[in-house]
Amino acid sequence: MIRKHFPVLQHYTYANTAAYGLMSEGLQEWRQDHDLDYLVGGGRMKIDSLSIISETRQTVAKFFNCDPHWVALLPNFSIGLNFLLEGIDHKSRVLLIEDDYPSVNWPFEKRGFAITYVKRAADLEDRIEALLAEEKIDILALSLVQWLDGLMIDMDFIRSLKKKYPELLIIADGTQYCGAFSLDFSSSGIDVLGASGYKWMLGGTGNGFLLFNEKVSQGIHPKVTGFNASGANLDRKDDIPFSRQFEPGHLDSLCFGSLNFSLQFLLQLGMPSIEAHNNELSLMAKEAFGTRGLLTQQLLSRSRHSTIFNISGDSELYEFLLANDVMCSQRGGGIRLAFHAYNNKQDIEHIAELIDRYNK
Fold it and tell me: 284-291: long-range contacts at Cβ-Cβ below 8 A with a sequence spacing of 24 or more?
């Protein structure tokens, strides 16, 4: 049973993975062993670190069905996107979602790209397609799951867009998606997928990645570089593989080893099983909170939703939930609840019962 791996669940109803994923006992033990090896092994750890980084790259590639040569390991998604945009013509026209995660929108805005915004709405996919038909758009950049309310982009829609607009560069932030739902990068239609590992992938902070469709290397020219990118080879300064150009400096073996450990843990559980469980949680939560009038019509009208829910509630309700050991967040004028594989029906029922008690 997955819950036994996460001691915090013995003390709290954890509905906050959208802010921070939990650490498993197994990961804590691995991290302790890693640092003990560093303590007693000293410089020998550098050799072990290279092995850990290499294994992590392979695990990320396996997890998302991507060629490992097109995997860039980074401390987080935000750094990766900023590196990426320095290699893209700033005259490109970009389509963004209003109020998408700041680390998606701000890097484009700061560089002065020509931007069109689409309103986040129940018919978001239709609105995106209409704008692509009306305007000359070069880049579509978006979060696969919206951080404020959990609206989840239809992956079949992304694939169909790529077929219809093959020259459109599709950049996706999977930080609120990856680890909660399955994603086959090779058939996704996404050109660049980035994510940080500390939420649904349960890898802790300091790790993330970019995955590339190899065709993007023809139109993107990274301006970052460093000795690590060359594989510590002085003769490779001008012959660095595309994905490695995003790794200019050393990578933390503790952080990336943590990502590697947790992705392997999720693979052992089976992503199809995790996705099926999370889809069930989504339906349960939609029913429990929807019948209480806590969800927007926008959310209720969509056929499929993530496991992130923004329920109507003020600071007093939020403080009430915290006082009753429910871990959640205030976002977008409401209270954000987020459920993962270690949550169950009882967690949702307990929160709903607490809300009923508060409203009496």
Answer: 284/345, 284/348, 285/309, 285/337, 285/339, 285/348, 288/348, 288/349, 288/351, 288/352, 289/337, 289/352
Tokens of 137: 């758009």
* pTM, two decimal places: 0.96
- The number of beta carbons lying within 10 Å of the beta carbon of residue 330 is 15
Residues 294-333 pLDDT 10s = 999 999 999 999 999 999 999 999 999 999 999 999 999 9
Which residues face 45 on adjacent strands? none
In residues, how long is the chain? 360
Domains of the chain: residue spans and CATH? 2-23+271-359 (3.90.1150.10), 28-268 (3.40.640.10)
Render pLDDT for 61-107 as a digit per residue (tens, 0 to 9).
Answer: 999 999 999 999 999 999 999 999 999 999 999 999 999 999 999 99
Give CA angle at 252 (251, 256), nearest 5°: 95
